[in-house]
Write a structure and sequence with these properties.
The chain is mostly helical and 105 residues long. The protein contains 3 helices and no strands.
């Protein structure tokens, strides 16, 4: 038997030592709950919840889950036709402004 396990199953563990060695480490390092969630994990949680809410709303509004793939394809197509050109235009204008300003002075 190891030194942290008692010989008799009915006897309590030694004073100051836990039955499970991991618990000793948790007590020494306070606990996982006292550590703040990292920013990356927080973002992941936020976007996961947002995605599930979006899918829930789609399903509740009558979206057939069998055609979800087609819906995603149509959303990507719509985004590339109407939204991405405006984003490209914005950054192109910023580039031209910086380029002209750099040539002038």
């Amino acid at each position: 038997m190891t030194d942290h396990q008692p010989n008799n199953k009915n006897t309590p563990p030694q004073e100051g030592r836990s039955i499970i060695p991991v618990m000793d480490n948790l007590e020494r390092n306070q606990s996982y709950a006292s550590q703040p969630i990292s920013k990356k994990a927080n973002k992941l949680l936020f976007y996961s919840v947002l995605g599930f809410v979006f899918l829930f709303v789609l399903i509740m509004t009558g979206m057939n889950t069998g055609s979800l793939g087609l819906f995603v394809i149509h959303i990507i197509e719509w985004t590339t036709l109407y939204i991405l050109p405006w984003i490209f235009l914005y950054y192109f204008i910023q580039f031209v402004r910086a380029f002209v300003k750099g040539k002038q002075g």
